[in-house]
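Intended use. Records like the one below are meant for learning the mapping from a protein sequence to its folded structure. Do not use them to infer anything beyond what is encoded.
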Amino acid sequence: MRKGHSKRRKKSKVNFRKIGIIAGATIVAIGLGYTVYSHLPFVKVNKAIAAGNKYTQEQDYEAAISSYSEAIEIDSGSVTAYSNMAGAYLSIDDAESAKQVLYDGWQNTENETLFDNYLTVSMNEAVNTMNQGNGNIDTVFGILAVLEEDNDNAEAIQILDAAYDRCFNGFEDIDSYFRSTDSGCSYEKYSELITGMLSVYEAAPNDELKNVILKYALPASDSFTMNYEDAVSYGQLIQTVETKLGNNDKLDSFVECINNAAGVQALFSNIFEQLDVGNVDELRSFIVTDEYVNYRNIFLNNEYTPQENTTYITVSREAMIFNCNEDKWTYRFLNFEENPSTAGVITVWANFFEDDGVQRNSISYEPASVGGNMYPHTKYSVTYLKSYITKGSSTKVAQLNYRLSTVVTAEDGSSTESIVGDWGGENEWVMDIDTIESLYHA
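Structure written out for the chain above:
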């Protein structure tokens, strides 16, 4: 027992000396340890967040953002720093930066609350923009971004539905969405929007989103203009929409317009090529072809066509105007006044005008402006008709022949006109309109 006790005491002596050493070391360590402790990452993060919170209370949001940013640099997993920093951005009405902070926070922490807040801020931003009357296609893209992250977000679908009327009817010129302009809002951007919606639908099909996309597939307008090439692409896009979501009469009617316009462009493509290089005389053979006469007769006889039925039918290559009446779409091509930068305009005459029981075939052509200046403006009109021509010195014979009228209009509105009778024939004659009128009145 004594032996054992002696060991315990000996042990105690040894331990005492060690304690003394440790105690001395501890005293030193306490002084150093406070410094080490204050530099630990979580302490620095908390200090930065606390500073940010203090600045926020003082409404010094720039300083608060700087402090929260410092906290995130130290610890990219600090949910509090991301959340508070986003709040500071929202306090200075910088929703875009708030969204970015929340999204980055979610990416770095996988915290669902940050993600939910990101979606909420995105949707609130869209709603506020629309309530202020500033909704546009970018607003809709913002809502779509929410759905791309959260495919079946019912609230986002409802806001997307509301945005159709708020962003595509009344806040901006609808033509800016469908005809390329310097503003950058063009059909290409609209197509990207519809394609994005279809992708969301394919990832999470539901009837609510389907109905919204079918609305967006056509604009909230009864009339708008499109570049012709974009219209062809648009027809293909609508067919894709119908393939994935189903057909409806209004979409079918619009596609019919585009398909019909493609047929008209094909009919006139060759004559446009001739006219582009100045071969106006090619109009003689063109207006007596079966294809031209059959096309003219559609309007002459008031047959059904999605192309608007008028007496003078414009055909140009640059752009089309679409009009809707009771869910039925019709179209027409832009005339020269509506598009002075045109490469040329043809006008088909669909009016009843017979000579000795023979219907006239008539057409007009206005070439492109020279140097971008509309004036002097030239218009050629060619008619195939049965009329009297003079053979020899005085013999008048009624026969089918061509007549060319050329009218040149100056910027002040004055014009000069000349007429060529039996144009291209053996008994061709030329006379200006003033001479013709003086003979007529004589």
